[in-house]
Amino acid sequence: MKNAWSGLEGGDDQVIELGNEFAEVVVRKVRTRNGARLLISSPKSGHSIALCPLELEALTWQDPSSLSLLVSNPYGPVENSDIHE
Amino acid sequence: MNDLSQMLEDVRRGMIPAYIYNDSDVFQLEKEHLFERSWIFLAHESEIPDPGDYVVRRVLEDSFIVSRDESGDVRVMFNMCLHRGMQICRAELGNASHFRCSYHGWSYRNDGRLVGLPFHQEAYGGEDGFSKKGQALLPAPAMDIYNGLIFVNLDPRARPLLEFLGEFRYYLDLYVKQSAEGAEVRGPQRWRVKSNWKIGAENAAGDSYHTPQTHRSVVEIGLFREPTGSKRKEGALYWCDKGGGTTYKLPPGSFRDRLSYVGYPEEMIDRIEETWSPQQKRLISDDGFMISAATLFPTLSFVHNWPKVDARADDDRVVPFITMRVWQPISATETEVLSWFVVDKNAPDEFKEASYKGYLMCFGSTGMFEQDDVENWVSITTLAGGSMAKRLLLNSRMGLLSNDKPVSEPLADFHGPGTAYVGYGEFNQRGLLREWAECLERPLKDLEQIALGSKMPNRMPEGGDV
Amino acid sequence: MAVSEVDTSRSKPLPFTDIRHQEAHQFLVEESYILDSQRYDDWLELLTEDISYKVPVRVTSARSAGFDTSPGMAHFDEDKYSLSLRVARFATEHAWTEDPPSRLRHFITNVRTFSTDVDDELFVQSALLLFRSRGDNREPNFVSAMREDLLRREDGMLKLARRVAIMDESVVRMQNLAIFL
After folding, report:
1. B326 CA to centre of own chain
2. Who has greater pLDDT, A13 or C123?
3. Is C14-167 CATH 3.10.450.50?
4. Model pTM greater than 0.90?
């Protein structure tokens, strides 16, 4: 997903790189004027997303099968969600 | 309140019943006839630059979330949960992708859409009992943005913002569009003053007459290069559609000379020159006027001035600053001032810092100008509440002869829109109160209940136990 | 000039019996009497030449937001020059907002003093309650704030080198801040 976060500087926050044989991501905290988000980017695919604390906490409520749903459609959003317009 | 039509007639001829500055009946009229259907400034886009950034602002008692959604659009939503009416955002500002009500946990996206409610299936029988699809926090009945300035109107049938602003946009640009990217703001400082909101709005609209007296102290301490007091009568006053303002007359010179004279650095002048229209530039180059204070009806005021921020320097270097403020009414006798520092986004950092310093020294909660203004306004408001004030018509006819002809003719070759006069006069205060009188006189149309975009009433299950 | 930083959540304050704490406390009390009586020329004498005097704009933010002041905006953000201009203005005959003057009382309490890694500098925290009464028929106003001060010994005398006064209200309930915290 393209977003407006590329111009944001994370200050001196630590950049975390994680990878396995299927994916590679870079994670860092980015500050906005009024708050902060966690920017997750995938240098190879060019996708990135900035998650707010509530979205991140929501990840902690998931179980392996709901996360499997996220993984099920590579490089695209989950399909058939009733929240999508 | 005395007789309404008599009051409005007095106001229109420039004789102001003193009690209008402290009267609960008048305030009630203002709430319903004016504030519930005027375009009210809420926030500047630069306060919510990134997706998820939001601020919470009010129009009278109505709280609104002003947010930038995930696709970058500005949204203004009534800050009340659709379920039991709890206030959704309780911080003044923050960043969030979703808002979650603290009462029962209903969640909304930052564009207002309802995305979930706990136990949807068990409590409501799922979509069948309560269809959350299409439900959203109530959007502001009308919202629009001009040059980064986010306005709302509680009347969904209000005429469009651009039409309302009319040609006053010419002057707004001079304050908030000094380059293609426009302005950024800091603040607001917020403080409460025991003063009626109209007094500050009128003062900024056109009161150049008070400067020599009220602000004598700041001239004496050398905060300004020239003795500002006597300079004021050489400036022009303009009234244009829904707003008016004051200007200073500058010494001879070109467009660039004159911007440089008030302290703009070359690179900012380059951008200003590229951005303003030829007609806007002529106000400075041909007419020699530089904008000072202004008010857009009803409650948004601006100030532009150029103090000596650092008088230790041997030269006469000045630095211009811009501030914007809202006179937000709390009651007939109390106003919350929200005051922002405004600066061009592309201005060099050292300019931004010096200009900010100039703002703090002159205006805002600690500003040396504003301190003395407020002392006057509080006293006026207090006295306006008594019985003697009900008998007194304040003379606000400056600039007019007894036959209503102006003391001096309007400027024939003024390049700004509207009507302008040189010298002292209360044309703009009268202009503002004329608008005020128009609003108070317009009959109220019934506002439909929830005619505001929520599909709630049609979507409720029929025969449900509601 | 080095500016000391103290993490007050980790450091231990000096015991109340420590002479440095007593000197710092006395400094604040003396300063309060000067501010109450609006002897601002004397007050300027208590400030170092490189004084930084700040009163940020407080905002209501979430507990975990990591900030509770407005980004980039303050009520006061002063140096010696701008403070002395403000003082000079009060000395003119036309500073109407303080003539007639307010009746002021700076109550200072909960004073904690911390030594710093600079010998001549003390970090002092205190609570301020400022009472202000104007005229004869207006309600008086209060400002409650926490002060974080840096005091530096110069020529044997303590002076104020830095003050950050953090107000406890986001909306100031006072017609202006034509006073010093």
Report:
1. 4
2. C123
3. yes
4. yes
